[in-house]
Amino acid sequence: MSEMVEQMAWFVNSRKRGIGLVYCFFGGVLSIVLLSFFSEKLNHRTNGFIRLVPPHVSMPVKIRDIRFNSFYFAGGTATHFYLANHTAPGLVMSMTTGLTDSTTARISLASAGGRFAKGLRISIDSPFIHLFEGITPGIARGVLGDTLLHRENAGLYFSLAEPLSPVSQVYRAVDDRIHENVLVKQIGSSLLPASHVLEKQVDGIFCTDGALIAQPDSNRMVYIYRYRNQFICLDTNIRIRYKARTIDTISRVKFTVGAIPSQRAITLSSPPQFVNEQSCVSGNYLFIHSALHADNEEMGIFEKSSAIDVYSLVDGNYILSFYLPDYRHNKIQEFRVFGHTLVALYDHYLYTYNLTIPEKMRQ
Amino acid sequence: MKQLIVNKRETAIQVIISLLILLFVYAASSKLLDYTQFRVELGKSPLITAFAGYVAWSIPFLEVGIAVLLAFARTRLIGLYAAFSLMTIFTGYILYILLFSPYIPCSCGGVLQNMNWRTHFVFNIVFMLIAASGVLIHEPSRQSLGRAYN
User: Is residue A6 part of a domain?
Assistant: First the structure.
């Protein structure tokens, strides 16, 4: 009898405990729901800007499977563009903007003194081919159609490089004295640093990160900050022509930087607010893939496509925006504009769009 | 027969308690040993960016607290409930990150660092079940009120 009471007690008790567990479970779930609710509110305030999206600016044309996802844009002309490859740095693919013909050329890295570190970037300003690798550092040059390259002295470590001519280039490098990013021009073996072009807001290195694009034919360079709504238009001697704002409202870099002594590392200690992702120039236009959602767009559209904002390089003013839809659940990785054709790279697919900017908005 | 059941139950409970204490003490100490890194990584998590400061010290504090509750017979049942609740919160957090987060941040410290988020999710579910079964097979409450080993 007592054994039965014992078992009954346990049974009753354990049923109560089951209810207790259910309470605990829902309490735990509720706390995450509340947390997500508050963090949504804090993380997704409206951004306070709107986009102009005229119809039919970008019309899809063609898709081509290029089989490998390690390609990146190395340069191009109005009719052809070049793709270099991260994993096979000795291969350069040339393709027409209609995506019809492609040829693959080999360049001999051995002729440039052999090994380059992983960060090697190939940049082609037809017919010249430039190899930049800022870690060792090393640069090499050649001419398309010729497999041989010759190596040159880089003179400093750099994190970005753009060719200006067959004998000059511009770098973004860290100035050792002030521990900040600066732009440096190299002509032959002489280095011409331009401090005070990139403006420090937090730490001078992370906060000034961005993209450097040279347009030597127009005596122009553009530096687009990644974490703030600004880009700088420069001439090829790194003198500022003007500074302009992108349409969003993030004028100050939104992150903090923390040191982790045990790893001897300096890292971001809050998620960075990305502003400008990929960008490219063509003619008098600057194209920026924006990371920010405008107040006048559906979240659904923004999540399933990439917003490209177009600016005039004449004065830095905003012109219009258009969207590039995701392809097979991939966002655009990179894109370039060659004349009227926009070529986007989605994993291992090339996707071309015909670009028509309304007549009244042309620059 | 009854004695055998009680013994089996007692052994199971001991195993469960030991596993949970081991997990929480390990998790807390790996966080506290490199507290700066933990705080920095937590700050990058989309769900808790805004509260990273509070969360960073309260998580190891709670973990140690629960381990202490589990260690004493008198508070063992509360400890089991608390362990279950905390594991539910962690699991919910992982589920949120996997389903809704715009990006996936770095995870916790120590060995757990080497688990990917999916493995981590399964690991947490297992520990949720362990804690829940601990609550369910724990001795009847009248015995656990300080007279467990009479």
Answer: no
Question: Residue A195 is inside which H or E element, if any?
Answer: none
* Cα gap B25→B23, rounded to integer Å: 6
Residue B80 is assigned to a structural domain of this protein: yes
Report whether B147 contacts B140 (CB < 8 A).
no
State the DSSP string of A160-188. Answer: EEEEEETTEEEEEEEETTTTEEEEEEEET
pLDDT tens-digit series, residues A234-255: 999 999 999 999 998 888 888 8
What is the count of structural domains for chain B?
A: 1
Which one of A13, A259, A270 has the shortest CB-CB distance to B44? Answer: A270
- pTM (two decimals): 0.71
The enclosing domain of A137 has a CATH number of 2.120.10.30
* 8 Å CB contact of A21 and B81: yes
Is A21 in contact with B142 (Cβ distance < 8 A)? no
Q: Which of A9, A36, A258 sits opposite B96 (nearest CB)?
A: A36
Please give the full DSSP string across A21-59, using - where no structure is assigned: HHHHHHHHHHHHHHHHHHHHHHH----S------TTSEE
Contact A258 B141 (CB under 8 A): no
Contact B46 A9 (CB under 8 A): no
Residue among A26, A111, A124, A115 at smallest CA distance from A74: A124
pLDDT tens sequence across B58-95: 999 999 999 999 999 888 888 999 999 999 999 998 88
Rg of chain B over all Cα atoms, to the nearest angstrom: 17
Distance, first Cα to last Cα, chain A: 96
- What pLDDT score was predicted for residue A335? 96
Condensed to tens digits (0 to 9), the pLDDT of residues A182-215 reads 999 999 889 999 988 999 998 888 999 999 999 9
Rounded to 10 degrees, what is the CA torsion of A237, A242, A247, A253? Answer: 70
The Cα A25–Cα B75 span in angstroms is: 20
Total count of domains within chain A: 1
Interchain CB contact of A12 with B (< 8 Å): no
Domain that holds residue A207: 49-361
Q: Is residue B150 part of a domain?
A: no
Confidence grade of residue B3 (pLDDT, cut at 50, 70, 90): low
**Residue B22, domain extent:** 2-144
Give me A31's structure tokens: 């706390």
Residues of chain A numbered 257-276 and touching chain B (CB < 8 Å): 258-263, 267-271
Q: Do A42 and B36 touch (CB under 8 A)?
A: no
A291 contacts in chain B (CB < 8 Å): none
| Separation of CA A15 from chain center | 57
pLDDT of residue A65: 93
CA distance B110 to B23: 11
Please say whether the beta carbons of B110 and B27 come within 8 A. Answer: yes
Q: How high is the pLDDT of residue B143? A: 45
